[in-house]
């Protein structure tokens, strides 16, 4: 076993370890390949980083916003110059196919390009006063220190959604990435620091989940964290939200999904199959926006399932450095979770899409597999027909290469099925009828809706986020995320030379409310 590097938390200018143990970040496509030995911090790591960040933030906030925008621009250019290297590291550390990893890195570049301009558009307003010789203003001001806790399925793109606007707005950041994506986190941080972000303004903390939670509790109690951004499971997000609520904070929560795709009777079935294949099994179904439930009209159910089964059986799966639909699961804990999901497959289900179910290997081979399945965490794709609304696989996020199929007869029934699990992140419908598309959008509870496109895929200038079990209504990306990392401050400036009291010293003009038009003007006879 060879170890590529040893990594520690970076708090301020120094690498720091705080007795939290050690984690080996392994290549899930080749478990003998240890990408990094990660020295974890204990429960004191995050509070220490937040305290350091609070001191650094005051100076960073004084840097003019357009200059901060130039730093973000520099970060984008550095990421672009290192695009292939960073994408290869993403592929190696989490097993994401290289073509998808390139797209993920491009999303950082797009985000930086967008927020470069926002450095010159952190607009406030001038507001007319109800009294003379008085002027009113509004300003966006930074929140302070943002603690950002991210999952590893998008190890660089999603963190950039938090980090870039937070830094642009004048905040400092304490970033706690997933341990199994530690090397990619360090690589992205290095690019940010070399773009001109001071190390104390961006701090990197490695810690396990419980030590992170304890550290966040301590930092919130100390008043050194003023905003929390969390991407992860709905269960953990609920704990984070509860903790923030005790400190009168509203976190930015981007959580799981059970994203429906409705296939209408007039849908282009080949296009729907293509969309389902990518959004259901791309990244091995390990996206928050992955397709969860296929809701197919009874009239086209049989033909659609047949076509999708054929497409899934012929899809390339295996070595993520090649041209494959998906590679391994991210980490052993996700493989264990997927095994438990497979245990819920029942007698009334029909498993399609591959020659077996479970881990791919000599005892359960996958036809056309690319590479050696014995080296990594590779699993068969599952298309599960006959799913019922009370099934576990219908109600819960599965986070793996499995998609369930159920049927419907009316659009109202399809919408009800789409909303039933209680998530609300992403949804899609395939139809050629505009009325069907708009009625679906009106009824579905998802924060993001696609028509004739997949449930996955976000552009850097649109709001990203969900409702219900998928989040608390906060949004990332585009101008909407600015409300997460700034607070509105109002200023009233009275130059009248006297005290003018609102709602009291206000001139009034009284209308003659008892006036009526003369009858002859109204044409009365």
Automatic annotation (TrEMBL):
Keyword Iron-sulfur: no
Enzyme Commission code: 1.2.1.3
Residue numbers spanned by region Disordered: 1-25
Sorted UniProt keywords: NAD, Oxidoreductase
Leading EC class: oxidoreductase
Pfam short name (any one): Aldedh
Keyword rRNA processing: no
Domain Aldehyde dehydrogenase: 23-490
Assembly and binders: Homotetramer.
PANTHER family reported for this sequence: ALPHA-AMINOADIPIC SEMIALDEHYDE DEHYDROGENASE
Protein name: aldehyde dehydrogenase (NAD(+))
The organism of origin for this protein: Saccharopolyspora rosea
